[in-house]
Design a protein that fits this description.
The chain has one helix at 68-79, and strands at 10-15, 25-38, 49-63, 83-88, 94-107, 115-128. The protein is mainly beta and 129 residues long. It has a six-stranded antiparallel beta sheet.
Protein backbone atom coordinates (compact mmCIF):
# COMPACT_ATOMS: atom_id res chain seq x y z
CA UNK A 1 0.00 0.00 0.00
CA UNK A 2 1.34 3.42 -0.97
CA UNK A 3 1.09 6.21 1.59
CA UNK A 4 2.19 9.84 1.51
CA UNK A 5 3.60 12.17 4.13
CA UNK A 6 1.35 15.14 4.77
CA UNK A 7 4.23 17.61 4.87
CA UNK A 8 4.63 17.30 1.09
CA UNK A 9 1.16 18.75 0.42
CA UNK A 10 0.20 22.31 -0.43
CA UNK A 11 -2.63 24.28 -2.00
CA UNK A 12 -3.01 27.29 -4.25
CA UNK A 13 -6.00 29.54 -4.88
CA UNK A 14 -5.51 32.35 -7.38
CA UNK A 15 -7.31 34.44 -9.97
CA UNK A 16 -7.64 32.60 -13.28
CA UNK A 17 -4.34 32.40 -15.08
CA UNK A 18 -2.13 33.04 -12.00
CA UNK A 19 -0.67 30.59 -9.55
CA UNK A 20 0.98 30.86 -6.21
CA UNK A 21 1.12 28.74 -3.09
CA UNK A 22 -0.62 30.36 -0.13
CA UNK A 23 2.03 31.10 2.50
CA UNK A 24 2.06 29.53 5.98
CA UNK A 25 -0.69 26.97 5.37
CA UNK A 26 -0.60 23.70 7.31
CA UNK A 27 -3.75 21.78 6.34
CA UNK A 28 -6.27 21.39 3.54
CA UNK A 29 -9.40 19.31 3.17
CA UNK A 30 -11.43 18.44 0.07
CA UNK A 31 -14.96 16.97 0.07
CA UNK A 32 -16.78 15.59 -3.00
CA UNK A 33 -20.50 14.86 -2.59
CA UNK A 34 -23.25 13.38 -4.76
CA UNK A 35 -26.93 14.07 -4.21
CA UNK A 36 -29.15 11.08 -3.55
CA UNK A 37 -32.58 11.91 -4.96
CA UNK A 38 -35.48 10.09 -3.32
CA UNK A 39 -37.65 8.40 -5.98
CA UNK A 40 -39.69 6.23 -3.59
CA UNK A 41 -43.28 5.67 -4.74
CA UNK A 42 -46.43 4.71 -2.89
CA UNK A 43 -46.54 1.03 -2.01
CA UNK A 44 -42.77 0.69 -1.48
CA UNK A 45 -41.63 -0.11 2.04
CA UNK A 46 -37.96 0.50 1.23
CA UNK A 47 -36.81 3.89 -0.04
CA UNK A 48 -35.40 4.08 -3.56
CA UNK A 49 -32.80 6.62 -4.70
CA UNK A 50 -31.20 7.84 -7.93
CA UNK A 51 -27.85 9.54 -8.11
CA UNK A 52 -28.05 13.29 -8.64
CA UNK A 53 -25.67 16.20 -9.05
CA UNK A 54 -22.08 16.12 -7.85
CA UNK A 55 -20.44 19.01 -6.00
CA UNK A 56 -17.22 19.73 -4.15
CA UNK A 57 -15.96 22.03 -1.44
CA UNK A 58 -12.56 22.65 0.09
CA UNK A 59 -10.99 24.39 3.02
CA UNK A 60 -7.51 25.17 4.17
CA UNK A 61 -5.94 26.59 7.27
CA UNK A 62 -2.63 27.63 8.69
CA UNK A 63 -0.96 30.57 10.34
CA UNK A 64 -1.78 34.20 9.60
CA UNK A 65 1.28 36.07 8.33
CA UNK A 66 -0.16 39.02 6.39
CA UNK A 67 1.63 37.87 3.23
CA UNK A 68 0.59 38.96 -0.25
CA UNK A 69 -0.60 35.41 -0.96
CA UNK A 70 -3.01 35.47 2.00
CA UNK A 71 -4.27 38.99 1.33
CA UNK A 72 -4.69 38.06 -2.33
CA UNK A 73 -7.06 35.24 -1.38
CA UNK A 74 -8.94 37.71 0.85
CA UNK A 75 -9.27 40.07 -2.15
CA UNK A 76 -10.76 37.25 -4.28
CA UNK A 77 -13.36 36.63 -1.56
CA UNK A 78 -14.35 40.29 -1.27
CA UNK A 79 -14.52 40.77 -5.05
CA UNK A 80 -16.53 37.57 -5.63
CA UNK A 81 -14.04 36.62 -8.34
CA UNK A 82 -13.96 33.07 -9.68
CA UNK A 83 -10.62 31.48 -8.87
CA UNK A 84 -8.54 28.48 -9.86
CA UNK A 85 -7.79 26.07 -7.01
CA UNK A 86 -5.09 23.40 -6.77
CA UNK A 87 -4.77 20.92 -3.89
CA UNK A 88 -1.65 18.74 -3.96
CA UNK A 89 -0.89 15.60 -1.96
CA UNK A 90 2.71 15.75 -3.20
CA UNK A 91 4.57 17.48 -6.04
CA UNK A 92 2.73 15.55 -8.78
CA UNK A 93 -0.59 14.19 -7.44
CA UNK A 94 -3.56 16.35 -6.60
CA UNK A 95 -6.86 17.94 -7.55
CA UNK A 96 -7.81 21.11 -9.41
CA UNK A 97 -10.91 23.05 -10.32
CA UNK A 98 -12.60 26.44 -10.39
CA UNK A 99 -14.82 28.04 -7.81
CA UNK A 100 -15.38 30.83 -5.33
CA UNK A 101 -14.02 31.72 -1.92
CA UNK A 102 -16.94 31.57 0.52
CA UNK A 103 -15.29 32.28 3.84
CA UNK A 104 -12.24 33.46 5.71
CA UNK A 105 -11.67 33.17 9.44
CA UNK A 106 -8.86 34.73 11.46
CA UNK A 107 -8.52 33.31 14.97
CA UNK A 108 -6.39 35.17 17.49
CA UNK A 109 -6.04 33.42 20.86
CA UNK A 110 -4.50 35.33 23.76
CA UNK A 111 -1.92 32.59 24.41
CA UNK A 112 -1.36 31.13 20.97
CA UNK A 113 -0.50 31.66 17.34
CA UNK A 114 -2.85 33.64 15.07
CA UNK A 115 -4.51 31.25 12.64
CA UNK A 116 -6.30 31.76 9.33
CA UNK A 117 -8.65 29.53 7.35
CA UNK A 118 -10.36 29.73 3.98
CA UNK A 119 -13.49 28.01 2.60
CA UNK A 120 -13.95 27.34 -1.11
CA UNK A 121 -17.02 26.26 -3.13
CA UNK A 122 -16.13 24.44 -6.32
CA UNK A 123 -18.09 25.02 -9.51
CA UNK A 124 -18.01 22.44 -12.27
CA UNK A 125 -15.63 19.54 -12.62
CA UNK A 126 -12.91 18.64 -10.14
CA UNK A 127 -9.92 17.14 -11.98
CA UNK A 128 -7.24 14.81 -10.67
CA UNK A 129 -3.59 14.63 -11.63
Amino acid sequence: MTTYNGHNGYFMIAASGSTGTIASMAHWSLTVSADANDVTVFGNVWRDFKSGCISWTASGDGFWDGSASQTGVHALLIAGTQADAYFYVNTTNGYSGKGYLTGETVDQPVCGVVAISFDFQGTGTLSTS
